[in-house]
Amino acid sequence: MIREPLSYQHLPTRGNRFSRWLGRFGMRILGGWKIVGELPDISKAIIPVAPHTSNWDFFVGLAVKFALGVRLSFLGKHSIFVFPVRRLLVWLGGIPVQRDSAHGIVGQMVEQFEKRDDLLLVLAPEGTRSKVTEWRKGFLHMAQQANVPVIPIAFCFATRSILISEPMSVGEDIDAALQRIKDFTNQAVGKRPELQ
């Protein structure tokens, strides 16, 4: 079930009935996707989405974003935020980051969480669509330092399901938090399972 965004008090929302209908229509034509679980009514969180094995993940994610009527943000290399796509990327929720910054990406994002009233940051913890042996842990350091929860989401192409976890606190043990997130997302089958 997709809850109407108007009933949320803290979750940053965006769009209208038409954009939510468009998102649901997109989920249908992309294979009949359904949402299992619900985003909590909170204003700040980091949302790792896995497995990330295909460019199709972006289109499914975009449809889900519109269907839910939620304002989500993502990171992008500052060099891609140029005319003529800058406005579109920012409108979609893009946040330009400088990889060579003295604060690093973690520091930049902790500052963003401190400055903003609301921020739901979506990212792919693998950092690539290719097969990786280890996930990047930067998003966990961001969550820990910004004191925000992590809400893992898994895209399962086998069942066409978007699985939304309960919020998780990172705590002191980054490795234990990473394992809890992997335990949740490992139940999903990516578009290209051989890359998981």
Walk me through the structure.
The protein has 196 residues and is an alpha/beta fold. Helices cover 33% and strands 16% of the residues. It contains 6 helices and 7 strands, in the order αββαβαβαβαββα. The chain has helices at residues 17-29, 56-68, 86-91, 104-115, 138-146, 174-185, and strands at 34-36, 44-50, 74-77, 94-97, 119-123, 153-156, 161-164. A 5-stranded mixed β-sheet has the order 1-7-6-2-5, covered by helices on one side. Helix 4 (104-115) packs parallel to helix 5. The longest helix has 13 residues, at 17-29. The radius of gyration is 16 Å and the shape is globular.
SS elements, strand count: 7
- Kindly, what is the distance between the CA atoms of the first and last residues, rounded to a whole number of angstroms? 28 Å
Our estimate of the beta-strand percent is 15-25%
Largest sheet descriptor? 5 strands, mixed
Helical content band: 25-40%
Question: How much is the radius of gyration in Å?
Answer: 16 Å
Q: In order across it, which strands form the biggest sheet? A: 1-7-6-2-5
Order of helices and strands: HEEHEHEHEHEEH
Query: What number is the mean pLDDT?
Result: 89
Low-confidence region ranges: none
